[in-house]
Design goal:
Keywords: 4Fe-4S, Iron, Iron-sulfur, Metal-binding, S-adenosyl-L-methionine. InterPro entries: 4Fe4S-binding_SPASM_dom (IPR023885), Aldolase_TIM (IPR013785), Elp3/MiaA/NifB-like_rSAM (IPR006638), PqqE-like (IPR017200), Radical_SAM_PqqE_MftC-like (IPR050377), rSAM (IPR007197), rSAM_sf (IPR058240). This is Radical SAM protein. The chain has 14 helices and 10 strands. It is of the alpha/beta class. It has a single domain, classed as TIM Barrel (Alpha-Beta Barrel). It has a 10-stranded mixed β-sheet with strand order 7-6-5-4-3-2-1-8-9-10, with helices on one face. Helix 3 links the parallel strand 3 and strand 4. The radius of gyration is 21 Å and the shape is globular. The protein binds S-adenosylmethionine and iron/sulfur cluster (SF4).
Amino acid sequence: MPHDALSGRPRVRPDAAPPPVPAPAAPSPGAQPPIGTPPIGTPSTGHPLIGMFDHELQAPLSILLELTRRCNLHCRHCFSNSGAQDQTPELSTQEWFAVIDRLAAHGVFLIFFGGGEPLCRTDLPAIAERARGHGMDLCLLSNLTPVTPAIARRLKDIGFYKVEGNLDGATAEVYEALRVTPGSFARSLAGIRNCVEVGLPLRINCTLTRLNAEHMEAVAALACDLGVTDLAFLRLIEAGRGGDNFDSLDVGEAVYRAELLPRLKALRQAYAGHMDIGYEQDEEIIRACDPNQMMPWCGAGRIHCTVTPDGKVKPDHSFPDDDPRVVAGNVRERDIIDIWRTAPLFQTLRHTRFARCARCRHVACTGGDAFRIYTHYGAVMGGPDPRCLEMEATDA
Ligand SMILES: C[S@@+](CC[C@H](N)C(=O)[O-])C[C@H]1O[C@@H](n2cnc3c(N)ncnc32)[C@H](O)[C@@H]1O
Ligand code: SF4
């Protein structure tokens, strides 16, 4: 099941037929169960979800390496507080090599390179080639404004399987209301065209805010014209400058559900067969899916994690760098795999269960969204998810 690059949550078409439930295969003699599978006969939750509770992953499936907090833009919604003047003491090329080698040795197979703007690091190609040399799959999260035809060709040659850019508006006026930097819209369009030209698979994100929500149909039309086949509308994360500006930028839950979701569903249908359109629909996914077919809804510290430019290991990109309670360790001081396996923070994320969840049928929910819980209670797994599905059903 595809996971959203940013949230790590599963992305499924709401109108897709549920996947067929395969008949259990007879194990061949001596066969090892896949990672995360409960040993046969072992009492467990009864739901073989990968990377949670009794059966932890020994290494993350995927990881986001934030190479820098430097950025050529200074967007009003940036969750990582990135910008031109950033002074974060970044890991060196060799330090990133060491991290990548350890991840590869433990079977991590997907690396996202993000930031900041990862193309601000001139050693990005070398770091990416190191990972590709281990056979890892690579995805680049970039604002694409630096992507010339030559850079697009280089990324293609390195073997990036996907590049993620963005279109937060269909005109310079709307786009730059959020991205602030004059000329960034035109440069982003050029970067998108350059990627399409060399055949780099693209996903384009549009973070929905009050500035652009009324233009999302125009964004979809422009993306399709540009040759994009994968477009995702993201909800604003209340972190970094996105947190500072949340009240003025966020569309609000009621508007999202009542007004934007129906339009997003209509857009998805209108472009079916031409462009895949994704959007946040977590509740629908959890309700619709067979729990035994799913990985945990929130993968933070359970199936993936994030390394910051200065080596901090966090559950995912949303958590702040400067709250020690949400930093599991630092790769400058400890081995990344050791941190993944033993950090008390990750143990808390994996093993906290709320009384309300004990008999809940939404098994894949695994206690809710770790970042939303942290922001709501000001504590890691400080209480049940404020948007608990079971509570909503009871209250309805
Ligand atoms: C942090 S950026 C890094 C890559 C690149 N610099 C960029 O902006 O595309 C990755 C993605 O997160 C989005 N993003 C940034 N801040 C966000 C926020 N507070 N909420 C939701 N998405 C956000 C960006 O628009 C972009 O699509
Ligand atoms: S959202 Fe992306 S482009 Fe904008 S400041 Fe942050 S890292 Fe840079």
